[in-house]
Amino acid sequence: MDLSNWFSRGAFILPGERVRLLENDKAFRAAFGRFPAQSLNGYTAEKASRRGQECIIEKAYNDRTITCVFADGTRLDFPNEVVDGYSDIE
User: Fold this and answer.
1) Which of 69, 90, 78 is CA-nearest to residue 7?
2) CA-to-CA distance for 80 and 87, rounded, in angstroms?
3) Going by C-beta distance under 8 Å and a sequence separation of 6 or more, which residues neighbour residue 4?
4) What is the distance between the alpha carbons of residues 84 and 23, in angstroms, rounded to a whole number?
5) How far apart are CA 6 and CA 25, in angstroms?
6) Which positions of the chain have pLDDT values less than 50?
7) Do residues 77 and 67 make contact, with C-beta atoms less than 8 angstroms apart?
8) How far is it, in rounded angstroms, from Cα 74 to Cα 58?
9) HSE (side-chain half, CA atoms, 13 Å) at 63
10) Left, alpha or beta for 85 (phi > 0: left; psi -120 to 50: alpha)?
11) Are 51 and 42 in contact (CB under 8 A)?
């Protein structure tokens, strides 16, 4: 299995990894650029309320999206770009 799609230089995008979401509002919103608002992976107010928080990656997908679990048990789907330190530049 080629793991190059699952991690980057700054943040590992692998199930079980603890990551922090971007804190900066402008960068956070921009991270959703590949997805329409209100889609499964798109920007929502609920996701915005998680800005800067830590979570654990539950699942990582080939389309560069993740399902994250927060300390309160909430599960949300995000594009990888929302992870602080993520870069898709090889």
Assistant:
1) 90
2) 9
3) 90
4) 8
5) 25
6) 1-9, 90
7) yes
8) 11
9) 11
10) left
11) no
- Strand, coil or helix: what is 83? strand
* Amino acid at residue number 82: V
pLDDT at 88: 73
CATH class for the domain made up of 12-82: mainly beta
Say what the pTM is.
Answer: 0.85
User: pLDDT tens across 33-51, in order?
Assistant: 999 987 999 999 999 999 9
CA–CA gap between residue 22 and residue 29 (Å, rounded): 9
Question: Residue 47 pairs with which residues in a beta bridge?
Answer: none
